[in-house]
Write a structure and sequence with these properties.
This protein is an alpha/beta fold. It has 2 domains: 2-100, no CATH class; 121-264, Glutaredoxin, CATH 3.40.30. It is 50% helix and 11% strand. The protein is built from 9 helices and 7 strands. The protein has helices at residues 2-14, 19-36, 45-58, 62-70, 72-100, 164-179, 197-206, 232-247, 257-264; strands at 121-122, 134-136, 142-144, 152-159, 185-190, 214-217, 221-224. Strands 1, 2, 3, 4, 5, 6 and 7 form a 7-stranded mixed β-sheet that branches. Helix 3 (45-58) packs antiparallel against helix 4. It is elongated, with a radius of gyration of 29 Å. The mean pLDDT is 79.
């Protein structure tokens, strides 16, 4: 049954392109189905596969062919274990891609297939930035002067579902960032609900005391705390000006006099 399961998957895929493989796939499926219901496999599929493989090997290396024929069951079990492990790891990878946007959320740069590896996207470059070198700028934000933003920046909002300051800031943040759709990538994390490793590393770097809310724009601009003291109008203008600065004025709101004045002071 071991070789039947592996062959069913492999031949099922090959059967898309080959009628011969489709015939073998049907036979493998029949064998697996009967064995799953505790009935013997009537087709002798294992023996057929064994004969085909050893015959093909005989023309290349007789010693290896004899070894394969003698240890075919052990080899089949080895392939089965590797197949199950590969399937499990592939499932884990797909889960990470769906939930975290990377096949390896702990080390995203090591993921071969990573939708975040967009040449226009700026992954928050927090690791090489020294917060002590930041200076105060508009809206209570800090500006890390040594950091540069090129391309489409990541914009982070960290909060909790129960935080009243987060509740005040969240709708303003979401309304403004929605206007910059296509020019920024917004990552909103409620840390009492989920704590993705990559996002939490950024949260800890910019906010070692764990205060909320936290906003980080392209790794360059950040603020711990809400803009309640400014009021909704001033907070809206400040966030708009920072996003305009980070994205080179892509929307009409960047031309508003009150926004342009703030942007010039960043």
């Amino acid at each position: 049954m071991v070789i039947c399961i592996v062959a069913l998957v492999v031949l099922g895929v090959l059967g898309i392109f080959s009628a011969k493989c489709r015939k073998w796939a049907r036979e493998a499926a029949s064998c697996v189905g009967r064995m799953a219901t505790l009935r013997p496999c009537e087709t002798g599929f294992d023996d057929k596969v064994k004969a085909v493989i050893t015959t093909a090997l005989m023309s290349r290396h007789q010693g290896f062919a004899r070894f394969t024929h003698r240890h075919f069951k052990a080899i089949s079990w080895t392939f089965m274990i590797v197949f199950v492990l590969s399937l499990g790891y592939s499932t884990y990878t797909v889960y990470n891609l769906a939930v975290y946007g990377s096949c390896d959320p702990v080390h995203p740069d090591q993921c071969i297939f990573n939708p975040q590896q967009d040449p226009n996207r700026v992954v928050c470059p927090y690791e090489g930035l020294n917060l002590s070198a930041s200076v105060a700028t508009i809206g209570g934000f800090r500006n890390i002067v040594s950091a540069n933003i090129t391309g489409r920046p990541d914009v982070y909002f960290f909060g909790t579902t129960w935080c009243t300051h987060c509740a005040w800031e969240r709708p303003i943040f979401m309304n403004i960032t929605a206007k910059f759709a296509g020019y920024i990538d917004v990552i909103k994390t409620e840390i009492d609900v989920t704590q993705p490793p990559t996002e939490m590393a950024i949260f800890s770097h910019y906010n070692p005391d764990g205060t909320i809310p936290l906003i980080v724009i392209g790794g360059k601009y950040y603020r711990v705390g809400s803009g309640e003291r400014l009021g909704s109008y001033a907070e809206t203008n400040a966030l708009t000006a920072l996003l305009c600065k980070a994205t080179s004025d892509p929307i009409s709101d960047c031309s508003l006099p009150e926004v342009k004045l703030l942007e010039n002071n960043i």
